[in-house]
Amino acid sequence: MTSTSTAPGAAAGPDAPRPAHRETLRTHHGDTVTDPFEWLRDKEDPQVIAHLEAENAYADARTAHLAGLREELVQEFVGHTQETDLSVPVRRGDWWYITRTTAGDDYPAFTRVTESPELPRGAGGVPAIEPGELLPGEQMLLDAQAAAKDAEFFSLGGLAPSPEHDLLAHAVDLAGDERFTIVVTDLTTGTVIDESVTGTGYGLAFSADQQWIFYARVDDAWRQHQIWRHRIGGDPSADELVLEEPDERFTVWFERSRDGKALVLQSSSTTTAEAWILDLADPTAAPRPAGGRRDGVDYTVEWAGDRLLVVHNDGVEGFALAEAPLDAADSSAWTPLLSAGEGERLLGVESFAGCVALELRAGGLAAVRVIPRRADGSLDVEAAWDVDHGGELDVVELDTNPAWDSPALRYQLTSLLTPATVAQVDVASGERTVLRRTPVPGYDPELYREQRLWATAEDGTAVPISLVARKDVPADGTAPGYLYGYGSYEVSIDPSFVPTRLSLLDRGLVVAIAHVRGGGEMGRDWYEQGKILAKKNSFSDFVAAAAHLVDQGLVAPDRLSAEGRSAGGLLMGGVANLAPERFRAIIAGVPFVDALTTILDPSLPLTVGEWEEWGNPLESEEVYRYMKEYTPYENVRAVEYPAIFASTSLNDTRVFYVEPAKWVARLRETVTSDQTERPILFRCEMVAGHGGRSGRYRKWEQRADELAWLLDQLGATARV
User: Fold this and answer.
1) What's the chain's Rg over C-alpha atoms?
2) Among candidate residues 140, 298, 287, 308, the one with its CA nearest the CA of residue 214
3) For residues 217 and 204, what is the distance between their CA atoms, to the nearest angstrom?
4) Neighbour-count burial of 372, counting CB atoms closer than 10 A to its CB (0-12 exposed, 13-18 middle, 19+ buried)
């Protein structure tokens, strides 16, 4: 291995911005808190904008010496990407739909070609199409690069062809606030016939007669609370409300059934759900109940053509699969089919003419279980089998499968060393066919190793760790390390392949994911053990994982970094307070670090609907005291801290920019570490949303900014 380069944290630069103290008082349960930085919440205040711009200028100055490394990283990201590329074509009706990317373009193009015996065929009978080469008759549906024009931000919130495939609806966001404008195009003429509906949420679906389109709206707290129908070409002021959810704990969403006959509408909180069915052949009819609502019963409904399928937790911790008649109004009609096994968690089900496919978690990994249908349509549960490839960290998930009567099931396979792979399995024979593995130029998997480790938490719980490193990195306690975590909302961070991670691995970093409690990696109970009054388990699990990497000699005790984003940013703030000595540097992306202030304010997006995740500190003094003990902003200590790079976006509707702005200000005035060597930086994207910049090149530039800083802090800027 080559030696590391320059001393970390070089280039002291100017003084860091220090916002003025303007005291705001908050009193709950007899406890009064003085907050000097709450005034930064008002983004209409010119002084707030000036402060954010000063933070960006400071970050620029403190990282100016990394310009060459940033460019080097971007070139590596580009070098590991087949820039002109395409997706595996997806059959919808008589058309094959394709997504294409072109070198130099930030955004993809969406095309299609008619099914024809003359089409060249590849594996699995899928059309053999070459990157950058259009087939005769291939039609452009949406050129997102052209649609974005000179916009600073561009994001698609949905793309849906109509049942007859002569119309296309897409939803576009040009601000980053996840509020979309719906555009409907006549594909026979290429003309836009409707773009009148604005300010929508996620979800698009056509009625069977193509006269109506269904969409969702969000309230002032960015809660998706309504489903509407719009007559295409009509005045949006005449749009009709289909469903409204008044309970602020719940959000609504919908899906068009695979056979195109029904719209399944769902309302769900963290713990409770309700479902309805709407006949798409009668689009102006009211939706009918399809499960009812009982507190604590969480479920999803799948329209299976001749029956309903339900994945639910009624009396079953790991969830169960049931079936019911199409007209079932409540759970009394549910007939049990199977329950999750030991260590399993059923996630959802998708139905087809010849089988149903269960998505689940087993052994800490995502998996797919196929249940064949008998001749009468019933499910042969005893004949169920799993799709697997035998790798220790293989992740298997369903891919896009729009065809109701397809004899094959398409799925995705990945691992820390396996690039995203689209494959299909013949349901009758079980034969697996790889359709395409994402090309990764300059990548040789034989240079690396992946493995599953287990750390021991404070209470003795075994915490899984997924790890990848170069084979030539010795386990002698000298290597730099990178540990990622999330740990909330039952979200699982699976060990998938990330091409930009190669830039860390090829500089000798040991890269790991800590699957801490609060996530869903190990089932429903894993989630329950990391929420509300057990939230601190997420933080201590992550610290235990960090300690395990050091104790095993896998990383150097003074060269371990960490990253988390959104609720994972809360995790970063929590571990920085809990065990700052464990980490040399931390990246906190769009971090939820002022959690108590947010959860105390019901008018904010992450509040009422989140009380089932964090508890309600307005009503419960116990929850209030517990949250106050861990919320990062209120627990910064006067000790040495890691270097910290916080990032956010001005238009983020999920975690407001003010949270990292306040946190960074408090860190700078409290910690005792030398901020020349261990800087605390804050970057705010002034036109972006929760996911940061839009477009792949812009995202690469943003990621290079973060990783160049991280590598510099670890003294690992040179490739091995």
Assistant:
1) 26
2) 287
3) 11
4) middle
Residue 580 CA, distance from chain mean position: 27
- What φ, ψ does residue 199 adopt, rounded to 5°? 65, 35
Strand partners of residue 158: 171
Helix axes 536-551, 567-578, angle to 10 degrees: 70
Q: Quote the CA–CA distance of 220 and 443 in Å, as a whole number.
A: 46
DSSP lists the bridge partners of residue 344 as 362
Q: How far apart are CA 181 and CA 179, in angstroms?
A: 7
Distance, in Å, from the CA atom of 223 to the CA atom of 225, rounded to the nearest integer, reads: 6
Tokens 């052994």 sit at which residue? 363
Q: What local confidence, expressed as pLDDT, does residue 13 receive? A: 58
Task: Determine the Cα–Cα distance for residues 92 and 259; give it in Å rounded to an integer.
Answer: 11
**Residue type for 564, please?**
G
Residues taking part in catalysis? 566, 652, 690
Here the tokens at position 605 are 């997006």
Helix (H, G, I), strand (E, B) or coil at 525: helix
* Main-chain dihedrals φ then ψ at residue 499, nearest 5 degrees: -60, -35
Give yes or no for a contact between 458 and 544, defined as CB atoms under 8 angstroms apart.
yes
Structure tokens at 698: 């812009």
Which residue, among 53, 58, 57, has the nearest Cα to 16 in the 3D structure?
58
Q: How far is residue 555's CA from residue 547's CA, in Å, rounded to a whole number?
A: 10
Cα–Cα distance between 676 and 307 in angstroms, integer?
65
| pTM more than 0.90 | yes
User: How far apart, in whole angstroms, are the C-alpha atoms of residue 567 and residue 225?
Assistant: 22
Q: Of 533, 458, 530, 444, which Cα lies nearest the Cα of 493? A: 530
Q: Are the C-beta atoms of residues 615 and 594 closer than 8 Å to each other? A: no
**Three-state DSSP state, 646:** strand
Query: Is 521 within 8 Å of 361 (Cβ atoms)?
Result: yes
Angle between the N-to-C axes of helices 46-62 and 658-670, in degrees from 0 to 180, rounded to the nearest 10: 60
Secondary structure (DSSP) of 93-129:
TTEEEEEEE-TT-SS-EEEEEE--TTS-B-GGG-B--
The b-or-e profile of 650-662 (16+ CB within 10 A means b, else e) is bbbbbbbbbbbbb
pLDDT by residue (tens digit) across 19-64? 999 999 999 999 999 999 999 999 999 999 999 999 999 999 999 9
Dump pLDDT digits (tens) for 540-570: 999 999 999 999 999 999 999 999 999 999 9
Per the CB < 8 A criterion, the answer to whether 467 and 453 are in contact is yes
Sign of CA dihedral 560, 564, 567, 573: positive
pLDDT in tens, 63-104: 999 999 999 999 999 999 999 999 999 999 999 999 999 999
pLDDT in tens, 447-489: 999 999 999 999 999 999 999 999 999 999 999 999 999 999 9
**Other CB atoms within 10 Å distance of the CB of residue 683:** 22
Q: How far is the C-alpha of 504 from the C-alpha of 381, rounded, in Å?
A: 45
Q: What gap in Å lies between CA 693 and CA 155, rounded to an integer?
A: 10
- Nearest Cα to Cα of residue 450 among 472, 476, 437, 469: 469
Pairing mode, strands 95-101 and 90-92: antiparallel
φ, ψ dihedrals at 140, nearest 5°: -75, 125
- At position 628, the amino acid (one-letter code) is K
| The pairing of beta strand 585-589 with beta strand 560-565 | parallel
Measured CA to CA in angstroms, residue 36 lies from 24, 271, 346, 634 at distances of 6, 36, 46, 12
**Both tokens assigned to 626:** 């517990």
